[in-house]
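Title: Request for sanity check on Nitronate monooxygenase prediction

Description:
We are preparing a figure and want to confirm that the structure record we downloaded matches what your pipeline produces today. Could someone re-run it with the sequence below and paste the raw structure tokens into this thread? We only need the token string, no images.
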Amino acid sequence: MKTKITEMLGIEYPIIQGGMQWVGRAELASAVSNAGGLGILTALTQPTPADLAKEIERCKTMTSKPFGVNITLLPIVKAPPYEEIVQVIIDGGVKVVETAGNSPKEFTAKLKDAGIVVVHKCTSVRHALSAQRNGVDAISIDGFECAGHPGEDDVPGLVLIPAAARALSIPIIASGGIATGAGMAAALTLGAEGVNMGTRFMATKEAPIHDNIKQALVAAGERDTRLMFRTMRNTSRVLANDISNEVVEAERRPGGVKFEEIHHLVAGVRGRAAMESGQVNDGVVSAGQVVGLIDDVPTCQELIQRMVKECREALARATAWAA
């Protein structure tokens, strides 16, 4: 399949694996890239820039195809060593960087001077326009259905994708709510040049998380996610479990809840432990509404080939109706 995104990223199919904390490791990224998509390592999953350098080299031993690195720019006082992370990516010969969170303008020029394609993830058209002005090469536009942080505007993909396509002059990638070839066909029809999937790639053989977590995603329906931190204007969509239900109930109490009161429930180390142990109710598990469309755990190769086949069939069917 040939789109502006496949040409820009040097990949066979316009399917990108989103950067996911604790999940974006060499096993998954290399499998997606080997299957013709673009795998993504998650920089902040690694404890230090030196560990990220090792993970980049490890991924290179597992695929000869392009892969990228996600850098999530956190709005916190004690930020990770982003300058070192960027230098490690450049030194490692990585050709694609996905940025998310805060504006990447501080690092965009340096990355592009090194020949790296910069894709920035946004949850609104206004932020996408700002990123375009600051020189990124493509936008991953993230609808309200997505896992993780969907922003505070609550605009779903069916509206957000065409709105972004109409407003931007650079290519866009549709993110959030996509797990099937039909969804991919819809995104392409709405103006996207590719799709980005996180939750769907969690439920694959190569995803480096416990099988209990994968089976929980398979068992979940489209109503089985929760929106935490709404009252703090830092909304996060996660799988419904004991932890997320407790947090949401706390936020509904008269007077709400302070983050310090629930930090022990949502701490990243606790979420990582749950992902690795398979204790689904012991930590936060990021997941999008797309869990309602996931009913198996294929290999990345099987998933991508199936999606491409379904996408072509859906586009052909729609074309036949129009004719």
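Thanks, this matches our download. The first helix runs from residue 4 to 9.
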